[in-house]
Amino acid sequence: MYTQFVSLLSLLLLQLGQLSASNPHFDPIHGVDRIQTSPTTNGQCTQCHPLHDNFGQAPEPKLLFAPNDNQLCYEAGGPNGCHALRPSGYPAGEGDRMPATAAAPGYFEANSGGQRLPGVLLRRRWPGMEVFEDTRLAPTGHYYSPHRNDPDMPLQDSDGNGLCRNCHNPHEGASEHDLLTRVYQPWGGSWANQASVRMAACLDCHGPTGPIGMEPENRLIADYYDKGINNDGRAGHQIRRNRDIAISWPTWVRSGDQLPCFDCHNPHGSRGSDGVQPNAFALSDQRPGWKGLTDTRNDPAQNRAFCLGCHIPADGVPGSITVDGIVMNTLPDEDEHRSNRTEGCFECHGSDYSSPTSSNVHHPGDGED
Predict the structure, then answer these.
(1) Is 67 inside any structural domain?
(2) Is 325 left (phi over 0), alpha (psi -120 to 50) or beta?
(3) Is residue 333 part of a domain?
(4) What CA–CA distance (Å, rounded) separates 130 from 270?
(5) Whole-model pTM?
(6) Residues 6+ apart with CB under 8 A from 218
(7) I need a surface site. Which of 22, 43, 299, 359 has the fewest CB within 10 A?
């Protein structure tokens, strides 16, 4: 009777639009399952919501097993909660991208033939609770995990820590991916070409209407992606299908598309590609050599290590790096592009965040200035 009641409740919530079949929490085979029933049925609301009691303890407000903060994500239902540990296979790599046949080609998702592989341990962009809760500061004074620790986060717990709910809705989000609260569809599909529409999950905050207290340069990111403000073919690290840069492009990448935020950033923080030296500014760990990158704007060696994670030096091997399905070519054969040079790429392509039209990695200079 209990099992039938829980299943009926879940079905009712689905019909009311609170859950959907695409919601990983509701997946009937691999979804949440913290209350053992006979037979065991996954995808139950009882992962987070007790129906009658909380194992003898008083339930939290809103009838939750744990407080309505990040601990709910880490520990819901008991000590063996869902999202505390770093998944095996972290970080996500090029092999984890959805193929051209998928609804969201190029999106980071552990998959088989374009079908998402279910299970918490396949969410390979989550570095684990320890990384997200890291309170250390980089030498520049920036948090390694800014979305948890920066005081300007819109939603905070009672201790002032940024909540997962700033970006995620456990019941249903505006995006079909990762339960995001806002749309994030970087490539392909019948989406508007404006980055502000396609990447609202990031640019709603990293834009002119971002949180009060955010550093000015972080509020300018949306401007660097805006082709109306920067109508020079370089806004948003724009893809121009230039054979001096790449050999081939997948079908989902069109001329004029812009580089997705997740190709360089992990909003959850970093442990470094070596697992020891984390990157600042939420730079991801997915590229070999991306470790200890704490000041790529000013340190030439760090800047070259960052850029050469995707670009191939002029004296390198064409096709040896692939980014988002783009098979990279060696850089044009100029002295500054060779692997033995020590100048920072920013010396020609910019690291200025002083105005909406400045040249920097989000809006690279053409190198001719």
Answers:
(1) yes
(2) left
(3) no
(4) 10
(5) 0.89
(6) 206, 210
(7) 22
